[in-house]
Amino acid sequence: MTFNKVYIGDELALSIRFGEDIIAQTFTVLNADDSAYSFVGQTSLNMFFYDRRGGKLLETITEGATGVAISSNVITWNSVWATDLSLMRDAGRYFYEMQHKDANGKIINTFFGPVKVK
Question: Which one of 58, 80, 104, 109 is separated from 49 by 20 to 30 angstroms, measured CA to CA?
């Protein structure tokens, strides 16, 4: 279990272990003034993994029990390596984006950054 604090639209570097499942990694999302970010009316929370920034899409983690979920301003990520992250075939550096759609259907880059798989 890992706890992260991140500002909406900001960069956050992640580190995960090759071959290990992700269990209850949480992200508390805040506005610039440290108030809780409101996900009211949001839809389509997704986490995308790429081989590099602006590169080839490798994995998409969607909203659900295994995937990403929101409660208030906290996002929780759970993934099974063998089924959700298997296209990251080697330890190394990758890139991810967490996105959601607001109540008007506009895509919001919730947060993003490099991910080191060790």
Answer: 104
Q: Is 91 in contact with 118 (CB distance < 8 Å)? A: yes
Residue 49 in contact with residue 85, Cβ under 8 Å? Answer: yes
Residue 63 DSSP class: B
Torsion of CA 3, 66, 63, 109, to 10 degrees: 40
Across the chain, which distance is largest between two alpha carbons, in Å?
39
Q: Which 8-state DSSP code applies to residue 90?
A: S
**Helices of type H across 3-106:** 81-84
Strand partners, 59: 49
pLDDT in tens, 15-57: 999 999 999 999 999 999 999 999 998 989 999 999 999 999 9
